[in-house]
Amino acid sequence: MRKISRVVATVLYVGLARHLPGSFSHLGLGLTNPFRATLCRFMIKKCGKNIIVERGAWFGYDLEIGDYSGLGLNARLDGPGIVIGNNVMMAPDVVIVTANHKHDDITVPMQSQGIDTAPVIIEDDVWIGTRAMILPGVRIGRSSVIGAGAVVAKDVPPFSIVVGNPARVVRKRDGSPLI
Asked: How far apart, in whole angstroms, are the C-alpha atoms of residue 143 and residue 149?
């Protein structure tokens, strides 16, 4: 029964709900996000309470999302092993990837070398800015801020503000010194 529910929810999400107006649109009438969030409960591995799933968000079955967290407008969460904690805010066009093509053997075409995967963990109370990209294997520490357009290729310590490409810590939210 779970598999049938997942298939029906996926068809409804991909074919309809994903394209409905966003939560902040006057056309949404406050109904579109609850509809998308309900479908997510049947689709993904773990779904917290009171989540927000904005228009155009794309994700896989292996996603885990905590309470009061959101997937931003047109967010793309690509690959297995993405874990999002509680109270995570995500702005539009965020990209999170957990897979990358292998390319070490120069005698074999890259497309024939397979892929490597590494999970992405986003701890509680994180704010991810517009068009930020989080690459495979990254852990974002709790209460951190990821600046708009940042490309995060390394772990982010808790209470950090990171910006840039590649992303780097520019300030600590809790007043502790930069390391």
From this structure: 19
Distance CA 10, CA 137 (A): 27
Structural domain boundaries of the chain?
45-172
Q: Per residue in 128-175, pLDDT tens?
A: 999 999 999 999 999 999 999 999 999 999 999 999 999 999 999 987
Tell me the whole-structure pTM to 2 decimals.
0.89
Nearest partner of 129 among 152, 103, 98, judged by Cα: 152
User: Quick check: is 103 catalytic?
Assistant: no
In DSSP terms, which residues pair with 133 in a beta bridge?
95, 151
Distance CA 171, CA 176 (A): 9
Three-state DSSP class for residue 43: helix
- Could you tell me which CATH number the domain at 45-172 has? 2.160.10.10
> Do β-strands 95-97 and 133-134 pair in parallel, antiparallel, or remain unpaired?
parallel
Q: Which of 19, 26, 101, 103 is catalytic?
A: 101
